[in-house]
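Exercise: predict the fold of this chain.
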Amino acid sequence: MKCLLAAMGPGEVAHAQALGRHLHTQGFAVTLAVVQATNMNFIKSDRDKFTIAFTPTPGSLVAQLQLHTPDVLVLCNSKIWRKNDLFRETPPPNKPLTVCFDTFWLFDRAKFPGFPFVTWADRYLIGFPPKIFELGLEENGGNFTIEKSVREKLEPVGFVPSYEPPSSETRENIRKTFQLKEDEKLIFLYASGRGADHRPWVIEKLLGSVRQLRSRGKNTRVLYLGPPLSQPVPPWVTEKTFIDDFYGALAASDLVFQHHGMGTLAQAIAAQIPVIANADIPGHPTIPEQHIWELSPLARAGTCFMETKLTPLSETTTSVDTLLYNEEARKRMQAAQAKHFVPGEPNAYQAIMKLMSAQPG
């Protein structure tokens, strides 16, 4: 069996890696097609498992389909090349079974015309547990509606990536590499920027909060992953452009502070690390509240704190302080993460196998 996964941006690469690794363990030969060259560094550890391809255009993806003739094509984000009308509306020649993997609710072209999607997929797998997905729908107090034609082909499968939390020993060994003092807390800071929009305001918010906490005698360090900082790097910040084990470093931290990206958020929930996710305002010119709407179901479920670009620094500092030092609040969020956590990779595999078994011939 052969599978080709096409990944749009850095979050989608995280999804494709996790899905691809699981499919590989189930006997699939996996090709991972990366759309943005800046994301090639993220997949170095998978070169022994996958065939790697660079597909910056729809034509280059079609060429890879012709070369590898996969049994299934997985598009990690149905909005991939969304401005290309031909690709979005017309399946490639000899289209294999096609599944989209998405982490949003944007499937209503009348209500959200700025977010067209690939229409020729056989199935849309959603990277949320069913209960979280339901919370995002208008009928359940959320903000989204789904076209009937898509709703019939849509299946929430759970969080991806859904890696196992590291053992206590592994976690401590990772923390030692950052030379933490015994009383120091570690915050994992990620604001994208590798093929997706960088959000410096997320960084500025956290650094401002940590300065306030440190001035109160609370020893807090930051591990920042992303493009080089434009400001002088404080001595309590460890800055890395890339890191080989993104999940390991995240899972060894005491708190994750991030942009709204669902790939990072899924990993924080899987590791049961308290997390503060930040929503842009506006999220999109036609949907200013987009990121708030997308994060709200997860915040309502208690799996994260949600803040916005407009959250006052004093409130951010209080939230960071609470999730670092208030053990009751930490345990409450970790309990919600454990309650709602559903690993998505096995369910995605089962959905794909069910579709493959129903294929004629």
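Check your answer against the key: The mean pLDDT is 93.
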